[in-house]
Structure formats: structure tokens, C-alpha cells
Structure to design on (750 residues):
């Protein structure tokens, strides 16, 4: 597994320790703590998992086991503008995969990855409940409907 | 206690509330097959995730089949363990497990001892009806343990041992569904983790997913090399277990046959780690008395309790977890390493062999010993004091490969001078044995009196944490004992918190001590096997003419001729070591 050693900001570590304390450092609160940790750091790098393990008196392996079990948790930092392409049935039949391919081609990254400049990351999801607008793409909080492969370039331009 | 009446396969039994269907059935002599379930009940070791579904039974009135290992008996329950529905389901489950398992039984290290193989045999599986993708994972080799996760069936026994019993916490199930595997955090390799190489994961693994690094070929090559003088040493716990590999009852002592077999294998000198165990007592006992005397004289710099340092799994565990207390364990090397140092210095000089032309092989009940002998501080210019550490199981393979009829071998003695030992050294192989041996010597040296009773029953047993106070001529000496690293952790946390009242603590990583070591014949969850080995060692102790380490005539001679006195200059150099802070050694693989 590729991993770049990172230095956590002391202030963020303190914040994480406070989160653990707010759950009384109970090992049973691991999932709740990881949720909060991911919202502090944006993702769950090894160093964050080590802090959580220490605070909750769990082995790092157990923490890692939970992080890798739930797809909500990620060890990859997301981009400043996280792109999600809906691959639900409605979007899929209306060409979402081609839209996804175009994002991958233009940004030169795969699903689950982040561009080297940290600007964009690509992920897929299943149905955002806007099937009438299929295929749907969300970037951050913004929703794009009826996206065509040709339109991808223009969407990305908005974030330059 | 409330009792419950249930019927299993038309037989009625009354069991205490809380009993599982599996245990109730066993009491009736009905052996429901299991796979993920594992129990060494006497040592508080149990794995029952209810995950494999091999033990399912039919319970009247219940829609689904119930896993017997986790289903508690209820009043009036009617259970059928072999209905057609149960048999079909069990077969389907097993076929599905086998469909994602390599079919390389012919060349698998676990063949003949594999619980999956036995079960397939028992259920008469001749064909696997499910073809599909097979999960694959990289093979991970460390100094002692090989992980071949393709053979993992996710029973989680290793995870239970590593986390709950040992509290080492290296192994955990990770990922999900078909991608799920048992691995260290961040999928690093074992040798980059806090793994202690205790080998308990290997001990409980039902398949060949976790096995030892096999050094038998290297030993055979050394034996065939005419330029090498090959010396073997055998640990105390091996003689109480090796016989099991040849069909003997657990607890059969095979000391004499083992010496004969080693000689037939071609070892130039057949020596005994027990000799080095006596030496360990001389050094460790002296260190205990030294610290104790200084403490009694008011020296506040002296650290008590002293911790035993024979067990390499324990030593590594200590180095990872308490780097701020590295001055507490005894500095005495383990018997394996003391033997190696004496063999490649004193004995090599004596027989005029260069240490580079000497190969020291040890036979150990242990996998951590494989790691221990590779530690750089136990080598001189890259030449290790101990070249190879074989497990009890590996020795059995060697003997079988050499067509030696082990059972009909005559009893032979070890060679001298490094083969002579006392009863004190024999009991090193069981929990409580090292500290009893140390007590025998320390008592006599400290009080100047002969012990009236040599056996210290109060130090014996299989409880995970034990303590006793021994009267040293009016001075009460508090002794603690723990086996299993999780229990050791408890004693260590007390020391760290300043709450410990012990003067000396013995710690062994494995359940029962070395008799339950990671390199011993597989016990398949039968704790009677470990108990029988313990009884055997105490029996050999009683039968020995000399039962106190300081009375070993060859140990005395070694001090006269070569070492001087315990903890003297040469002893310090050859027989003592130091410990390392390993907190920053954990590497996340790039």
C-alpha cells in the first residue's frame, strides 16, 4: 500500500483527542469517533488512525479493520472539489459511464484518487435522488444535471 | 445454578444455563464438527465468532439452522445434529470454503495437521460444485512466521489470540466481503509490525495460512558439510512434546530417544539447552540477589521487581510497549543465546574449531527463537551465536525424513560438557518453572541454608496470573508469575503505576509457558495436552539426581575454568545483553 508519512497539525490532534474524550474514550465508540475524525481531517490517514487507536485503547489493526470495512471511510485525501458521478440505474442507462470516463481522461486520475495538485478527486455513488436530471454529477455542494461527455470540459473550467 | 433439560439426537441431557448446544452435545459424546471454533478453556482462550457455519444443527420450531457453537441451550430444546438438511448445509458450506482455497495439499506445510483437510475427509467431499474466482494475496515472510493468506478461511482464531489473549494487536480482519483478509494495520509486513513472533497465531491456525519459517533444509545441508562442526541444543519443553509427533500419548518424556535420534541425524555434539538454563539461573539468580541486597541496604536507584528475560516473545513485547522501563528485565540472555555464546566461544576454543566452522542448531518449542537468533547483538562479525532454531515440529520432520524409527530407539545421554543439567533447568519449560529454579538457587545462596523441600508447589499451576510469598529466612520474597502476554501486560501496568509489590516476576508469552509454545506439536484446542506436558516436566525434575542449578558440576567447572564468577567480566560480556526501544521501528510500507 502506498503511503506518504504526514505530519498532523497539533491543533487538529488536540481536537481529535477532545472528540475521543467526548465519547469517554470508549472502544465501542470507534465508528462515531472515526466519523468525527474524518470530518476534522477530510480523510483518515494512518497517523489519525494511530491517534484514535491510542485514545480508545484499541490496536491500530482493529481501527484499520473498521476503516477498510466501511466504504464511507477513506484513507485518500479528497480534492478541494470532490467530484461524484452517479452510477445509479437511471444515470447509468443515460450514459454516466461515458461522463465518468471523460472526467478520468481530463483529470488523469482514477476513481478514488485525487489530482496531484489536490484540486479534484473522483468518486462514484449510487443515486442522489435526482433521476429526472440523469446523468447527474455533484461537485462539492453543486449539482449538475443532464451532463454529457462533451460538457465535462466546461464544468471543470468553472473551477479554474 | 439453574439447569436446563434438552434433547440432542434423541438423547436427553441436563446442563447448566448458558451451556452451548456444542458443549451439551460433546457431553453426550456427540461430536458436532467445527472449524472456526477453538477452545483452550482452562487458559481462558476461546474463539467462537459463529462465522464458518460448519457446526449448524436443526432446532425444532426454529426456521433457520443454528450454529451449535454460539447457540445456548433452552428448556425443552429438541436438536438434531444430522438431519438431511443439516448434512446438506454443512456440505455446502464446506464446499464453498474449499472453492476459494488452493488445492495444493500435497505440498502444503500443514498437510496432515490441517483441520480443513480433516473436515473435508470426514464429510467425504469428493467434488466441489462451486467454481468461481479465488482470492489471492501476497505472501508475507518474516524471520519466524509465514503468512499465506490464500489459505485463510477467516476463522479469526489468530485474531483472537493476537488481540484478546496476547494483546499484541497485530492481526485484524480488514477490508470487506471477498476482499476481506487478516492482516496487520495498513497491510504492512509482519517484520515491520509489533509482532512478537510468539507463534500463537500459528498454533491455532486451522489451515496452512500461518506457518513457521522452515529451516530443516539448511540444517540438513550443514550436517552434510564435512567442514562444519554441527552442534545441537534442545530446549526443556521439547522432550515433553516431541513424542506426540510419533503417536505417543501427550506427556510422554522422550529425552533419551531424542538424544539418540539427534546423534543418528549426524550432529557432532548433542547438547542440552538445559545446561544453559542452569547457567541462566546462576546469572539471573545472582542479579536478583544483587538487586535485592542493594534494595535492602537502602539503594534507591535499584529497580525491582526483576523480570525474567528467557522468553524472546516477551522481550520483544516489552521493548515495543515499555521503552521507558528497559532497565527492569534481567540482563541475562535467554538459555538459547547463552548456549550459543558458550558454544561458539568456550567450546569452540576447547575443541579448536573456528566459530565460522561451527554451526549451532537449537530445537525449540518456540517460533520467536527463530527471530531471537537473528538479532544482530547475538552475532560476532555477522556470525550468529545460534545459526538455526528449529521447532519441535521441524525436528519431528527431520527424524521422519531420515527413516529413523523413533519409537524403537534406545535411550541415550547428552554429550558433555554442555549436556549436563539439573531438575531446575528441566522445569524452565513450564510456566512458573524459571522462577522456581531461580528460587531454589537464590534461597540457598541468600540464606546459606540447604532447602528442606526443593519443590515449590505454591509457584505451580496454570492460572494465568499467580503469586506467592517465599520465606527467605524471615525475609518475605514476593513472586509473581504470568503466562500469556495479555496477563503480563496487567502486571507491567501495575509496575508502571507503582502498585507492584513483587520482587521478581516470571513472564512467558505462551499459554502454559514453553510447553504451549508456538513451535510445539499442534494441540487442536485440547488443553489436556498442555497439562500432560507440564506433568511430564515436573516428573523429570523429581527423577533428576541434582535439582538445583548451582549444583550442576559442569556449570561449576565452567565458572572455575572460564567464566570466573556470575556477573563477572566474562559473564557480563557473553551471558548478558541489553534491550532496545522499538517504538519507532514500526514501518508503514511505502
Amino acid at each position: 500500500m502506498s503511503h506518504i508519512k504526514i505530519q498532523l497539525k497539533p491543533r487538529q490532534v488536540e481536537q481529535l483527542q477532545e472528540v475521543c474524550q467526548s465519547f469517554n474514550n470508549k472502544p465501542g465508540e470507534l465508528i462515531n469517533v472515526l466519523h468525527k475524525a474524518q470530518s476534522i481531517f477530510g480523510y483518515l490517514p494512518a497517523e489519525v488512525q494511530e491517534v484514535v487507536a491510542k485514545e480508545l485503547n484499541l490496536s491500530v489493526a482493529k481501527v484499520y479493520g473498521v476503516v477498510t470495512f466501511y466504504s464511507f471511510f477513506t484513507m485518500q485525501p479528497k480534492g478541494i472539489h470532490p467530484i461524484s458521478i452517479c452510477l445509479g440505474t437511471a444515470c447509468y442507462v443515460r450514459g454516466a459511464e461515458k461522463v465518468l470516463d471523460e472526467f478520468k481522461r481530463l483529470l488523469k486520475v482514477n476513481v478514488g484518487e485525487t489530482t496531484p495538485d489536490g484540486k479534484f478527486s473522483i468518486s462514484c455513488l449510487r443515486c442522489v435522488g435526482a433521476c429526472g436530471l440523469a446523468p447527474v454529477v455533484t461537485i462539492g455542494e453543486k449539482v449538475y444535471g443532464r451532463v454529457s461527455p462533451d460538457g465535462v470540459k466546461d464544468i471543470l473550467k468553472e473551477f479554474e | 445454578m439453574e439447569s436446563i433439560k434438552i434433547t440432542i439426537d434423541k438423547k436427553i441431557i441436563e446442563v447448566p444455563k448458558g451451556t452451548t448446544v456444542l458443549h451439551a452435545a460433546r457431553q453426550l459424546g456427540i461430536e458436532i464438527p467445527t472449524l472456526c471454533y477453538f477452545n483452550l478453556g482452562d487458559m481462558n482462550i476461546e474463539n467462537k465468532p459463529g462465522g464458518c457455519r460448519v457446526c449448524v444443527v436443526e432446532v425444532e420450531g426454529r426456521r433457520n439452522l443454528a450454529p451449535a457453537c454460539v447457540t445456548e441451550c433452552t428448556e425443552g430444546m429438541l436438536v438434531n445434529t444430522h438431519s438431511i438438511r443439516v448434512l446438506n448445509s454443512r456440505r455446502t458450506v464446506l464446499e464453498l470454503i474449499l472453492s476459494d482455497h488452493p488445492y495444493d495439499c500435497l505440498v502444503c506445510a500443514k498437510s496432515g495437521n490441517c483441520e480443513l483437510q480433516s473436515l473435508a475427509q470426514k464429510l467425504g467431499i469428493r467434488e466441489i460444485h462451486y467454481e468461481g474466482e479465488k482470492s489471492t494475496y501476497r505472501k508475507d515472510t518474516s524471520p519466524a512466521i509465514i503468512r499465506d493468506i490464500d489459505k485463510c478461511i477467516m476463522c479469526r482464531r489468530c485474531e483472537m489470540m493476537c488481540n484478546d489473549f496476547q494483546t499484541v494487536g497485530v492481526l485484524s480482519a480488514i477490508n470487506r466481503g471477498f476482499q476481506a483478509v487478516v492482516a496487520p494495520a495498513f497491510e504492512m509486513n509482519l517484520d515491520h509490525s509489533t509482532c512478537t513472533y510468539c507463534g500463537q497465531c500459528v498454533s491455532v491456525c486451522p489451515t496452512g495460512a500461518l506457518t513457521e519459517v522452515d529451516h530443516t533444509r539448511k540444517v540438513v545441508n550443514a550436517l552434510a558439510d564435512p567442514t562444519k562442526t554441527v552442534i545441537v541444543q534442545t530446549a526443556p519443553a521439547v522432550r515433553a512434546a516431541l513424542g506426540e509427533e510419533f503417536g505417543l500419548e501427550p506427556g510422554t518424556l522422550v529425552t533419551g530417544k531424542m538424544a539418540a535420534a539427534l546423534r543418528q541425524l549426524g550432529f557432532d555434539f548433542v547438547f542440552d539447552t538445559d545446561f544453559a538454563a542452569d547457567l541462566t539461573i546462576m546469572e539471573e539468580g545472582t542479579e536478583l540477589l544483587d538487586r535485592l541486597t542493594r534494595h535492602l541496604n537502602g539503594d534507591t536507584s535499584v529497580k525491582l521487581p526483576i523480570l525474567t528475560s528467557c522468553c524472546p516473545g516477551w522481550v520483544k513485547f516489552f521493548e515495543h510497549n515499555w521503552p521507558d522501563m528497559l532497565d527492569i528485565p534481567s540482563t541475562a540472555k535467554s538459555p538459547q543465546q547463552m548456549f550459543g555464546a558458550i558454544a561458539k566461544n568456550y567450546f569452540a576454543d576447547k575443541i579448536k574449531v573456528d566459530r565460522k566452522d561451527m554451526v549451532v542448531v537449537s530445537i525449540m518449542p518456540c517460533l520467536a527463537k527463530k527471530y531471537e537468533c537473528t538479532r544482530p547483538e547475538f552475532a560476532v562479525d555477522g556470525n550468529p551465536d545460534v545459526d538455526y532454531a528449529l521447532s519441535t515440529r521441524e525436528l519431528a520432520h527431520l527424524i521422519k525424513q531420515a527413516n529413523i524409527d523413533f519409537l524403537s530407539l534406545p535411550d541415550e545421554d547428552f554429550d558433555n560438557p554442555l549436556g549436563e543439567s539439573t531438575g531446575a533447568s528441566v522445569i524452565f519449560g513450564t510456566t512458573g518453572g524459571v522462577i522456581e529454579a531461580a528460587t531454589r538457587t537464590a534461597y540457598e545462596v541468600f540464606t546459606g541454608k540447604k532447602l528442606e523441600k526443593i519443590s515449590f508447589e505454591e509457584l505451580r499451576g496454570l492460572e494465568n496470573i499467580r503469586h506467592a510469598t517465599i520465606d527467605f529466612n524471615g525475609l518475605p520474597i514476593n513472586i509473581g508469575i504470568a503466562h500469556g502476554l495479555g496477563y503480563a501486560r496487567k502486571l507491567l501496568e501495575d509496575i508502571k503505576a507503582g502498585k507492584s509489590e513483587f520482587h521478581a516476576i516470571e513472564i512467558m508469552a505462551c499459554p502454559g509457558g514453553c510447553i504451549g509454545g508456538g513451535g510445539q506439536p499442534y494441540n487442536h484446542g485440547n488443553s489436556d495436552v498442555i497439562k500432560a506436558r507440564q506433568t511430564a516436566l515436573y516428573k523429570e525434575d523429581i527423577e533428576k539426581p541434582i535439582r538445583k542449578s548451582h549444583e550442576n558440576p559442569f556449570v561449576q567447572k565452567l565458572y572455575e575454568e572460564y567464566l570466573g564468577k556470575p556477573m563477572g567480566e566474562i559473564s557480563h560480556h557473553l551471558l548478558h545483553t541489553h534491550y532496545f526501544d522499538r517504538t519507532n521501528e514500526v514501518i508503514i510500507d511505502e
The first strand of chain B starts at residue 3 and ends at 8. The interface with chain A takes residues 163, 168-176, 183-188, 588-590 of chain B (CB under 8 Å). The two ends of chain B are 56 Å apart (CA to CA). Chain B has a mean pLDDT of 96.
